[in-house]
Amino acid sequence: MKKLVFALAALALAATAGAQEATAGAQEARRPFGLGVSIQPEADLSPTIEVYAPIAIAPQLRVEPSLGIVTQDRSGAGTDTRDVTIGVGLFYVQPVAAPFDLYMGGRLKLNFASEDNGVDDDSGTDVILAAAIGGEHYLTTHFSLGAEAQLGFYSASDVSGDDSGLFTTGLAFLRFYF
Known about the structure:
The protein is an alpha+beta fold. About 15% of the residues lie in helices and about 60% in strands. The chain has two domains: about 30 residues; about 150 residues, Porin (Beta Barrel). It contains one helix and nine strands.
């Protein structure tokens, strides 16, 4: 009986060590720098597209600056809008399997918005702070597809008055790593 227990314990330890080696190997194969885009559908505007630059500053720590620009130019009596968003995210990254990582952390964004209806020119700065959790599937060592869910707080500066509140949203990501 002792031999059976010892053999099972040795097998369990070997399997655990093998899984840790596979996870460490998957993390080492990840590239340290990349560029990506996210697509987030919005009801009142065309889809917002942002460019992200994921940078691995440690094996399980990623910083991700972002830049987004949305413009709507309407001829005649319409209102022209422009939004420039700059942001940064900080994430803990955990490899789950060789081609898949999970990450969690937060994002801070500033949105510089302006509206011009031909008579008035209004502008303001919006602040967005969000907790985020996501996953990334690596199709190759250079290319990944991902999704992210966010729960956050926004403080918006609007032409009709200031607004703030909580929000939830989802993003789809395409990232290319160098």
